[in-house]
Write a structure and sequence with these properties.
2 copies of one chain form a homodimer.
Chain A lengths: L1 H8 L3 H12 L3 H15 L6 E7 L5 H14 L4 E6 L18 H5 L3 E3 L8 H17 L4 E7 L3 H7 L4 E6 L12 H6 L2 E4 L7 H18 L11 E4 L8 H17 L2 H28 L1 H15 L5 H11 L7
Parallel strand pairs in A: 1-4, 1-5, 2-3, 2-4, 5-6, 6-7
Helix pairs in contact in A: 1-2, 2-3, 2-6, 11-12, 12-13
The structure holds guanosine-5'-triphosphate (2 copies) and magnesium ion (2 copies).
The site of one magnesium ion has 3 residues of chain A, from α4.
Chain lengths: 327, 327
Amino acid sequence: MTDLADKILAGDRRSLARGITMVESARADHRAQATALLDRLAGAGRQALRIGLSGTPGVGKSTFIESFGMMLTAQGLRVAVLAVDPSSARSGGSILGDKTRMERLSRDPNAFIRPSPSQAHLGGVARRTREAVALCEAAGFDVVLIETVGVGQSETLVAEMTDLFILLMAPAGGDELQGVKRGIMEMADMILVNKADGDLKPAAMRTVADYAGALRLLRKRAQDPEGFPKALPVSALEEQGLIKAWDEMKMLADWRREHGHFTSRRAAQARHWFETEVREGLLARLHNDPAIRGRMGDLGAAVAAGEVAPAAAATEMLRLLGAAGPE
Amino acid sequence: MTDLADKILAGDRRSLARGITMVESARADHRAQATALLDRLAGAGRQALRIGLSGTPGVGKSTFIESFGMMLTAQGLRVAVLAVDPSSARSGGSILGDKTRMERLSRDPNAFIRPSPSQAHLGGVARRTREAVALCEAAGFDVVLIETVGVGQSETLVAEMTDLFILLMAPAGGDELQGVKRGIMEMADMILVNKADGDLKPAAMRTVADYAGALRLLRKRAQDPEGFPKALPVSALEEQGLIKAWDEMKMLADWRREHGHFTSRRAAQARHWFETEVREGLLARLHNDPAIRGRMGDLGAAVAAGEVAPAAAATEMLRLLGAAGPE
Ligand SMILES: Nc1nc2c(ncn2[C@@H]2O[C@H](COP(=O)(O)OP(=O)(O)OP(=O)(O)O)[C@@H](O)[C@H]2O)c(=O)[nH]1
Ligand SMILES: Nc1nc2c(ncn2[C@@H]2O[C@H](COP(=O)(O)OP(=O)(O)OP(=O)(O)O)[C@@H](O)[C@H]2O)c(=O)[nH]1
Ligand SMILES: [Mg+2]
Ligand SMILES: [Mg+2]
C-alpha cells in the first residue's frame, strides 16, 4: 500500500491506474485499502485545477478534450481526463467508443485518460470519480478534466466536484436557446460554442452572442469577476480558440483564489462529499445485513404479487430498521 | 379527506389538482393525509395506460403532447400530462415556459396538465410523480403521459413508472446515431422521429430506417411482439402519423396484456417503488432526528474547515447511526 502510494506520488501512471481500479472496486477489502490509500495521499496536499466539461451528445466533447488536452501538454502541463457517464448504469456508454477520438492524447506521456467506471448508480460513479480525482491530484497532474454528457443530474454531480464547470454547445438558431435548461446554464462558469469553423462559423458567432446575453441575465455571482461568466467560440476540430479559452479559465480561477471563493467552493464540496458518504453508508445496511436483506426480499415479493401496497410495506420495513416513515 | 377522495373518484379536476398539491407537499401532516388519500383511492382499482415520453430539448415534446393529446381527446379519451424535470432541482425548468405550446390542450376539459414538482432531488420528483399518476388513474383518466427531457437518469425514472416508454427523436444525418446513448435506446418501446414534414421529411424517413435497424440490433425481448420495438415518423406540428403511432401503442399494450407482460412490468415497478420508499425513509433519519441533524451539522462544518477528512467524518457519523461503513 505504502509502495503504491509512493509510486502514485512519484507520478507513475500504471500505479495511478491501479489505484483507480482499487477505488472503483466494490469488494470490501479493496474498499478498506482504497480508504487507506486516499488517507495516505491526502497528506501530500497537491491540488490540480479541476475542470468539469459537459454538453449534449455529438457537440464535440471528445474532440475538444483531445485538442484542448494536447494544447495543455504542449504548454508543459500534465492532464488527466476522467468521465462520469450517466447511462453506464445500463449499457456502458455510447454505441461508438471514444478511443479513436482521443488517439493523440491517449499516447501522450503527459496525459492520462480513464473512462467512466461502470456502476449500477450514478451516485456510485460520482463517488468513484471523486476519489479518482484525488488520486490524479496526488499523482501531480496540473489539470483534471471531468467529462459528462446529458442534460440533468450528471452535470450537477460533475459541477459539485470541480473548480470550473464548462458547458460545450453547438452553433444554433436563436430559437433553440430555450432548449438549454436554465439550471445547467446557471451552473456554467463558461460556455464554449464549438464547431466555430467553416460553414458553421457565422452561426457559432451568433450563438456566442446569444449565450453571452443569456449568461448575463441568468447569473451574476459574487464568485465571478467583471465580465464573467463568458461565452467564447472554439473549434475543437481546427484547434481554434483553445488557448484563449484556457487563458480565461486561468484568469477566472486566479480571481477566485485571490477572493477566497476557490477555497470556499472546495470546502462546500468536501462537506457535500461527507454528507453523501453518510447517506450511502446508511443505505448499505439494506444489502449488508442478511436478516434485513431477507425481509426486504420477502416484502418486495409480496408487493410484486399485489398482496401489500408499496407504501404499507415500506412503513413496515422502516419500523424494523428503527427509522420513522419517509419525510 | 373522504370528501376529496370522492371528488377525485368522480373525476373532478380541481380536486385532483388539490390532491396532487397534497402529495407534493413536504409537510408531515400533508404527507400523512396524502398516504391516507392514496390508500383510499387504491381500492378503486382503476388503471390508465401510462406512457413515458422523452427526448432531447427542442425535439418537439411539448408540441407532440399538445397534438397527440388533442387527438386522444378527440377520440373521447381523457388525458393527463405530468412531467419529471431533472433540472428543476436548481431552477424549475427551461427558460421559456410550456404554456404557450400546449394552449389548446390546456383548455380541453378532457385533459389535465401538471408541471413537474419542484424538489431538491430527482428522486423526490419521481416519488411525487408516481403518486400523482395514481391520483390521475383514480380520477378516471384513460391515458397518463409523463414527459421528461435529458439523456440519463430521468428517463430511467420515467421508464420505471410507465407501461410504455416512447423516445421522441429529431431527423438526423446517419453520423449522429452514435449520439443516442445505448441505454436509453434499450429502454424505448417505440421511437417516434418527429418533424417528418417539409424540408425535413426525407431526413426523417432515413432516420426512421436507421433507428428501426438499431432497435432491432439492440433489443429483441420476450416483452415485444414480432416487429417491435418500432420506429415511426410523426409530425407534431402538422399532426401527421399520430393516429398510427397511437394504434401501434395500443397494439403493443394489448399484446403485453394478453401475454402477462403488462402485469409483470407493473409488479416489478411496484417492488421498485417499495424499495425506493424504504431507502428514502432511512435517509429521512438524517434530517428528522434533531440530535442526528446537529451532529451532521457539526461534522459537516469540521469537514468544510478542513479539520476532518470527508471519509473519516462519514465513518464517525455512521458509527453513531449504528450503521457500518459504505459498501
Ligand atoms: N466542424 C466541426 N466538427 C466538430 C468539431 N468538434 C467535433 N466535431 C464533430 O462532431 C462530431 C461529434 O464529435 P465528438 O467529439 O464525438 O462529440 P461528443 O460530444 O464527444 O459526443 P458523445 O461522446 O456522443 O457525447 C464528430 O463528427 C466530430 O468530428 C468542431 O470543432 N468543428
Ligand atoms: N417542423 C417541425 N417543427 C416542430 C415539430 N414539433 C415541434 N417543432 C418545433 O421545434 C421547436 C421545439 O419544440 P418544443 O415542442 O418546444 O420542443 P420540446 O422538446 O418540448 O423542447 P424542451 O421543452 O425545451 O425540451 C419549436 O420551434 C417547434 O415549433 C414538427 O413536427 N415539425
Ligand atoms: Mg464523446
Ligand atoms: Mg417542452
